[in-house]
Sequence to fold (368 residues):
Amino acid sequence: MISFTRPLQESRNDRSILGRIVLGVILPWATLPGPPAASDSAATINVWYGERQRIGHLGTAQEDFNLLGHIDAWRELDSLDWSLNERAPIPLNFRAYRRLAAEGDFNADIPLGRLRIGENSLELSARWRDGHTASRTLTIIREQGSTPLPFSIRWATVSNPQDVGQIVDGLWRVTPDGLRTAITGYDRIFLIGESNWRDYDVRTSIQVHRAPDLSLGPGVGLIARFTGHVVGGPKHFPSGQPKWGYQPFGTIAWIRWSKQSSPSSPQAQYFPGSEGRPTDIKPVPFSVGTRYDLRVTCRTLTDDAEGRGVTHYRFKIWPADSSEPEAWTWERTQTSATALRRGGVALLAHNIDVTFGDVTVRPVSSEP
Fold:
């Protein structure tokens, strides 16, 4: 989604996964064996979140369902693709770039319009340069549901995060304390709600577990009014599997570190939904291992004289063991012809090991 780092150079693409995962938890499948034997081929395509996955039970948050995973022996891999209900295959990228945090990762943007109601058969197929092949068949269940406001998530009652939201990027796991990035990387996103959500007040908490690598421009917070990645749009993003066009959205309200930061002093940052660049508002005292509460509100205001949308955004962060401050960390009135005025809320972890706590989203009234 958000491009804070330059694209990976070819010389970096040959690094192992162990070298590419900077701060995350190394899982067993992160090893890199040679090309698989045919008898072992089915085990080389690792699909995250299970053989049977569902979408639509919470309504529509974005236009795609994301099927994520990792494939072993990527160095000698010639092709990887997916096919839905025996239709023509779609090629997948499996080299580290933007939304793909490590070599061998894949993320299939599967349009909801191609998923029929009920069960769908999806086949992943891989071919290596020496002729070995592997395939894996999964079931994607499309349901019809909704997520009305108010809405809350209590992680202690959740075993599968996709029961309460949609994983857009990355490998996450539910812990006793909340939803944690199992492997860190570029813009790990967990999307909550529906694309028709408009004005709301969202609260959650964060706990960063390791000192962030300042060279990666790490950040953590919330995206208000997010409806998925795009091709085209106001900035003419190219196509790809996965897509990586990150605007428009509503706004990003988060804390972010830079090379000039110290681990104990990130900037509270306002990131506009389409026009303009992110703005550092002020430094925030911060300690790794301490839990902080976050709160973001978005409220629609009257269009301006040129018909552009106007929204008032507010953000605050404070230590969870203290009372909520009355003052907001920042407030901005955003005027834009292209920034989204509707959309769900996304938990955003950019190159950082973090746990998000319980989430509560309540509706707020718009200005008449």
